[in-house]
Amino acid sequence: MPGRDSFYALLRQHRLMLPARKTRHTTNSNHRYHKWKNLIKGVTLTSANHLWVSDITYIPLTNGEVCYLHLITDAYSHKIQGWVLTDTLWVSATINALQQAIEQAVEMKGSEIL
Q: Where is the Integrase catalytic domain positioned along the sequence (predicted)?
């Protein structure tokens, strides 16, 4: 039975190996700028719509560029409340996702304020 390295060499020889993934550049918190306190640390969630969180997911495209999925997610149910897909990291896209989430919540609960 061949070893791992010779097995991988055989796969490469027959072009059966996928190309190595490029490293992703993510948030680096080791900087001199202000770091905001985690306001939700220790909060116990008891129901949906108690806390929403935002996130931005990087989606690589086949042409080598990247698009960004701005999400507003309910922290209790993990349901996506609002989203926007765009080619920028502008805060306006996240605000649009938040507005979408608020509109959806108002529709579901009538005119009740969140």
A: 47-109
Name, in order, each residue with C-beta under 8 angstroms of 35's C-beta and a sequence gap of 6 or more: 29
Domain span at residue 60 reads: 47-114
CB atoms within 10 A of CB 71: 20
Instruction: Give the CATH number for residue 61.
Output: 3.30.160
Pair of tokens at residue 92: 């306006």
Give residue-wise pLDDT tens across range 7-16: 888 888 998 9
Tokens, residue 112:
């009740």
Residue entry with tokens 């796969």: 11
Domain membership of residue 39 (yes or no) is no
Which structure tokens are listed for 15?
Answer: 């072009």
Does residue 23 lie in a domain region?
A: no
Tokens of 86: 């765009």
Instruction: Decide: 59 and 83 in contact? Cβ < 8 Å.
Output: no
